[in-house]
Each structure stands twice: as C-alpha cells, then as structure tokens.
Design brief:
The complex is a heterodimer of chains A (about 475) and B (about 260). With about 475 residues, chain A is α+β, with helices and mostly antiparallel strands. Chain A is built from 14 helices and 20 strands. In chain A, helix 10 (about 325-340) runs parallel beside helix 13 (about 455-470) and helix 11 packs antiparallel against helix 12 (about 425-450). The radius of gyration of chain A is 25 Å and the shape is globular. Chain B is of the alpha/beta class and about 260 residues long. Chain B has a 6-stranded parallel β-sheet with strand order 3-2-1-4-5-6, sandwiched between helices. In chain B, helix 7 (about 150-155) runs parallel beside helix 8 (about 175-185) and helix 8 packs parallel to helix 10 (about 230-240). Classes of the chains: A alpha+beta (about 475), B alpha/beta (about 260). The interface between A and B is large, with 39 and 49 residues. Chain A: It is found in: Mitochondrion inner membrane; Golgi apparatus; Cell projection. Chain A: Belongs to the UbiH/COQ6 family.
Chain lengths: ~475, ~260
C-alpha cells in the first residue's frame, strides 16, 4: 500500500528496499493494463495531428460538469488542456422556470462545500434551492421511527435542489472558464481505443476517442462520467457487480394542502418500498416513491385525485400494523424511555397533499451497481459510472460529488509533482480512498432496502426494535449523519 | 569524514582546488573521463526497458515521488514560483545520466527547460521516442548522447541547476565530474545529487537484498565499492558549485544546494 511505503521511507539508512513495496503495488496495478488493445500505430494518423488533450471528461451531467469546473479552477492544472464531451444540449437557465423539475437531489454539506469551492453554489442559491433541518424516517409496519436533525435547528442538514438547476449552475460557472476548459455539446462518442500500459515501439500511448462526427481525439487521461450504463466502463471491460431491484421510482411535484414551514424530509418504508416527500418550497414538495414495476405503472395511470389519495394513504394509514409488533414496539419504547428519557420522539405526520404539479409524473427503474475497479491505465470512473445506488438515502449525487473532490485533489498533486496525469500510481490513490468511503455506504443502503422490503414478522420486529434503539442513542445518530454528510 | 574546517577556509575560487586527502582512495581509475565503459554496457542492454514501470527500472519510476518534489521545492526556494501550473518555468536544468528520461520528463512538465545527457545512445533514442508523442513536452525537453565532459566544453555557465540522480555511483572519476559541473553551472546555481550511502546496511539492502534476493534491481547494477558517503558527496558538491559574484567573500557562503543521500 502506498502508506506502507511512506512509513518505510522515514527509516534512515533503509537502503533501497522500500521501493520494492511500491513496485509490488505498482505491479499489481499494472497487471490491469490492456493486453490486447489494438493500439493504433503512429503511421495511421497522417494529419498533424489528432488533437492531444490532457484530460477528456466523457459525460456532462451533474458530476461530469462539476469535474470539469473543478479541474478548470485548480491552480496546479493551469495550462492543461481539458475537454468535456456531452451528448445532449447545453443547459442554460437564466431564470428559474415557474414549474419545478421532477428530478431533484439532496445535497449534503460536503457536496455543498465542493460546489461552493468551484463557484457554482452561488448560482444555485440565486436560482432555487430548499434547505431542510430535519428528517423523519419511519416504518409502515410498526410505530418505530428515527429522526435526524442538527442540534441547533438553525443549521441546515442538507438541501433539496432540482437536478436541472444544478446542471445549469455548473454550466454557467463553466462559461467563465473558456480558456481552461473546452466543452463540446451534442457530441457522441462511438469508440474508445486503449493504449498499451507502457511504451511499445511506435504505438500511440494515449487514449483515442472517436466521435460520431468522424473526428478522433487523443487524451492522456479519460474520465468516465457517463452514468450508470457507462460506455467507458463497458469498453474498458471493467467488471461490474450489479443487480436490478425489480423496483421503479415514481417522481412528481406535489402541491400541499396548506402552506407550511416545510423544512422536514419525510420517508416511510412501506413493504413495497419507501415513499419520500422532500420539501421544495412552502407549498410544494417532491415525491419519490419506489415500488414494484407494476404498481409504478398503475400509479402513473391513475387520475390526479386517486393518485393524491394513494399518496396520502401511503403516508398516513396504519393498515400494515400488527398487534404483536405494536405491543412489542411500545414495550420496548417504554423501556427505552426509562433508560434514555430524551431518546424517544413523538411521531409526526407529514403534510397532506392536495394536488400535483403541472409536469407529468415520471418513472424510472432502480438498480444497484458497483464497478469493481474505478481506474485503469489512463482511465478513471466517477459518479454513477462507478457506483449506482437506491435513492432511499439520497446519497447518489453526493457520492458522485465526493468522487469529484477526491480525484481533483489527486490530479492536482500529481501535476505539481510533474507526473503524467494518466499514471496508475496516483489514480490508485483515488480509487482506494473512494472505494473505502463508497462501499460501506452502498452496503448500508442495500441492506436497508432489503430489510424494509418485507412484512414478515420477525424481520419487522428486528428492524422495529433496532430503529427505536438507534433513535435513542444520539452519538450513533450523529455518526450516521456525519458519514452521510461528507 | 575529514577535516571539517576545510569547508570554511578552502572555499573554491574560480580555479578549482580539489582536496585529495578527503577523497577516499578507493577504486578509481586515473582517467580524466567520467565514463566507465563497463557501466555503459550494462545500460546499453536495457535501453528499451526504461519506460516499463514494472520492469527493470521500476525502482527509479517510484523514486520520482521523492526526487521530483525534492528538486522542485529546493528550486522554488531559490528562484521563487513562476507561473501557475509551471512552477519551474524559465529554469534551465541539466540532467546528467538521464537514461530514458524518467526524471527529465517530470521536470519538463513542471515548466523547466531540461537538457538530458547520457553516454548510452540507445537510452537517448528511447527517451526521444517517448517524448515525441507529447508535443507540449517536446518543447521543454531535449536530449543529447554525450558525456558531461563533452558538454562542459560547449556550455559554460549555462544551467541554473544540474541534477545527477542515481549517477555518481556509476562514474569512473568523481573529480572530473565535479570540475565539469562547476563549468556548466551558473553562479548561484544548484547541484542535486541522489545516490546510495556507503554503509554496511546499504550493502545488505542495496546489493544483497535488492539485487540478489528480491530482484528489484538487475543483478550487477551497483558495486558497493563505488558508493559514497554523504560527507564525500558534499565535498564533491561544494567543489562543483559557485556562488553568485555578489556573495563571494573569504568566508564560505554555503552554496544554495542540497546534496541528498539515501540508504
């Protein structure tokens, strides 16, 4: 490991053997080179030249655009040629539209810091965002609940921001960096050609990116930010662990029955899947209802009134309660209230819904995915291309922004050390750091999803008692919040 | 070791005085050249292996994470930072014994104008080929197949810094080396040396373990007899550099160079 070599370096008179360990590390890493890459021969490119970039980012979504901004603003990367490729159109938003977008993300303080550091947060605040201070998560099969809030209720826990707003704000910031970062919209990539892992005769040592327009670009480092069905990841042959959840999420904008302070995020675990209501404004909230494919389709076909009824009933009804669980639950709660008087919370009910917003409801399938390697020689994956999670914890975008922060830091240091940006040595640091953070989070989210997917009594009892116990122990909750805020 | 006071009083004036008493009289040929043919042959055979990061030169690749910051930070101390993204811009560096350009390229990426020299022509070819794919870097980095003596006859006082990394343990004649460095360095220029120390431990680890047991380094790369101790290295280095005119005085001004030994 890298830190092991550093530890050994501090020993004096240690001879040269310390380098051996970095070599072993490097050897392990370099075995991931491409054995048969079909690397292009130099003679093929007669023109002078296929343009050579230092970094090409493939994919201009939230995470890809944030990466471009972050690299463009880094002082150590000044003078490097950076290019962002996006298949869609440029997203410009001078003023927020009246209607709210249906796709929203929960932005935690860590991500807000990153966005603020790259100058996009101001644009977001000027457009539209909603901070919230509390989160209540409760079960449909029992009375168990857990609430998260900052001690000082004036501090925000996180922000709900529409995805369109985030992308538009980042695009606006990118417009201020035309010398540092080039962007090509409406550009599709058709082929990637990978280099050999070290200099062999006349083969081109760079990644080649062939566009639909016929142009071929070359880059020293390719960053794949092209979403859960990443072409970069597929073409690099990186093995991915993934499965479908047999669930789809239905999203919509909800009109509340009456204006309220609306600074609480609500999520209830139904046996079919969690339903969440996230605040957008005093009168509007965003719905994210994960449920089976069939139920999701049915929900989309309901008329507005029935749909609203379904939502309210999902949040309010106690049909799923069973006597056994209720008794057990309340006994446990009484016991807890003796041990930790402040540890129990009264269950509050979310605001009732009166209608839905003008944009139609949408559904999209859910799944879990994790690339077993985030990097290869001259390639790095960030965002959903590397990891895809269930929306129940609101962490998808935040994990992506965490990747952006880490990779920027690693590349900045590498540039300051005069290193070739595509070299494995520092890319490995990025992968290690992020996998260490992302994997526990993903495991926890998947576990939660499975735990709450059933109404079999023993499991319900287990999670009821577990949830109540966790709610009663503030230090544990603080740890959870801290981990989710990074 | 040796007379410590030598450093104070015997400060080199433009005509160099070398203090032979303090140089270990070990196996040194009497040649006036720094090139040792047997050493050159070793590297000739490996000329195309330079850039394989897990090949014979893997140790040198990983050493870059130490020696590049070392050189960069010390040069920044002396010259101050230049442009963002190119901290060493407009600094002229000579990389002696550059081999395939493993250290030359990072220095070039940091903005310095680097000339890499090596007596082994095939290594220079490898270095030139490797850099030829990067047009921006090609502007910063040049290579020449020659020895330091040949260069010192042409480029007097041309360089802000000379880097001899993992080189002095392969040279035939360190006195000539110091003399040539003196000739090519600007007043106030820096000399960077990295090499192995000469201790029992460096024998155990650098020769026995690294070459014979773990095979990190090809067998026969190093000869323990040619290792030098830090004080010897400093002695040579002090004779190789020269102060800026304004600072020259009877009392020694320690020149702005660090000499680093490891192992």
């Amino acid at each position: 490991m890298h830190c092991l070599t550093k530890a050994l370096l501090t020993l004096n008179g240690g001879g040269r053997c310390y380098t051996g360990l970095t070599c072993l590390n490097g050897a392990r890493a370099l075995s991931r080179g491409f054995c048969n890459s079909g690397a292009a021969e130099r003679g093929e490119s007669n023109k002078n030249e296929n343009e050579l970039y230092d970094i090409i980012i493939s994919g201009g979504g939230m995470v890809g655009t944030a990466m471009a901004c972050s690299l463009g603003m880094d002082p150590n990367l000044a003078g490097k040629k950076i290019l962002l490729l996006e298949a869609g159109n440029k997203k410009i938003m001078d003023k927020v539209p009246e209607g709210y977008g249906t796709r929203v993300s929960s932005i935690n303080p860590g991500s807000a810091n990153l966005l603020s550091g790259i100058g996009a947060w101001d644009h977001i605040v000027n457009l539209r965002c909603k901070p919230y201070q509390r989160m209540q998560v409760w079960d449909a099969c029992s009375d168990a609940l857990i609430t998260f809030d900052k001690e000082n209720l004036e501090d925000e826990m996180a922000y709900i921001v529409e995805n369109d707003v985030i992308v538009a704000a980042l695009t606006k910031q990118l417009d201020t960096l035309p010398d540092q970062v080039k962007v090509q919209y409406r550009t599709k990539v058709v082929k990637y050609t990978w280099p050999k892992s070290y200099q062999v005769a006349d083969s081109i040592p760079w990644v080649q990116v062939k566009l639909a327009s016929g142009e071929t670009l070359q880059t020293k480092l390719l960053i794949g930010a092209d979403g859960p069905n990443s072409m970069v990841r597929k073409e690099a042959g990186i093995p991915t662990v993934k499965w479908n959840y047999d669930q789809s999420a239905v999203v919509a904008v909800l009109k509340l029955s009456e204006p309220t302070e609306n600074n609480v995020a609500w999520q209830r675990f139904l046996p079919t899947g969690p339903i969440a209501m996230l605040p957008l404004s005093d009168t509007l909230s965003s719905l994210v209802w994960s449920t089976s494919h069939r139920h999701a389709e049915e929900l989309l076909e309901l008329d507005e009134e029935s749909f609203v009824d379904a939502i309210n009933s999902a949040f309010w009804s106690n049909d799923n309660h069973s006597e056994l669980i209720e008794t057990a639950g309340s006994l446990f709660r009484t016991a807890l209230s003796f041990l930790m008087p402040s540890g129990t919370s009264a269950r509050q009910l979310p605001p009732s819904v009166a209608g839905i917003g003008p944009k139609s409801r949408v559904m999209f399938p859910l799944g879990m995915g994790h690339a077993s390697e985030y990097i290869r020689h001259r390639v790095a994956l960030i965002g959903d291309a590397a990891h895809r999670v269930h929306p129940l914890a609101g962490q998808g975008a935040n994990l992506g922004f965490g990747d952006v922060a880490c990779l920027t830091k690693v590349l900045s240091q590498a540039a300051f050390n005069g290193q070739d940006l595509g070299a494995m040595q520092h890319l490995l640091e990025y992968e290690t750091e992020r996998q260490r953070h992302n994997l526990p989070m993903m495991a926890a989210i998947d576990l939660m999803k499975r735990l709450y997917s059933t109404n079999v009594a023993p499991v319900v009892l287990l999670r009821t008692l577990g949830l109540q116990a966790t709610n009663a122990v503030p230090p544990v909750k603080e740890q959870i919040m801290a981990f989710a805020s990074k | 070791e040796g007379g410590g006071s030598r450093i104070e009083c015997d400060y080199p004036t433009p005509s160099v005085q070398l203090d032979y008493e303090t140089c270990p009289q070990t196996i040194r040929s009497a040649s006036q050249s720094t090139l040792d043919p047997s050493e050159a042959k070793k590297f000739q055979l490996l000329a195309n292996k330079w850039w394989d990061e897990r090949g014979e030169f893997a140790a040198l690749h990983s050493m870059n994470s130490l020696r590049v910051p070392f050189i960069r930070d010390n040069l920044l101390n002396v010259h101050g930072g230049r442009q963002l993204g190119k901290p060493l811009s407009s600094i002229r560096i000579l990389d002696v014994g550059c081999g395939g350009g493993l250290l030359t390229e990072p220095l070039g990426r940091l903005g310095a104008d680097v000339l890499g020299i090596d007596p082994v022509e095939d290594s220079i070819r490898t270095a030139e080929l490797h850099v030829s794919f990067d047009p921006v870097l090609q502007e910063q980095v040049r290579y020449r197949a020659c020895t330091l003596e040949e260069l010192s006859e042409e480029e007097a006082e041309g360089f802000d810094a000379v880097v001899a990394s993992e080189v002095v343990e392969h040279l035939a004649d360190l006195d000539t080396f110091a003399l040539c460095c003196h000739q090519v360095l600007k007043p106030g220029g820096s000399l960077f040396i990295t090499t192995l120390n000469k201790t029992n431990l460096s024998y155990a680890l650098g020769i026995v373990a690294a070459e014979r047991l773990l095979r990190i380094v090809p067998s026969g790369t190093h000869e323990w007899e040619k290792f030098i101790s830090p004080s010897t290295a400093i002695n040579y280095a002090l004779h190789a550099v020269k102060p800026r005119e304004a600072l020259q005085s009877d009392h020694a001004q320690p020149p702005p160079q660090p000499s680093q030994t490891e192992g």
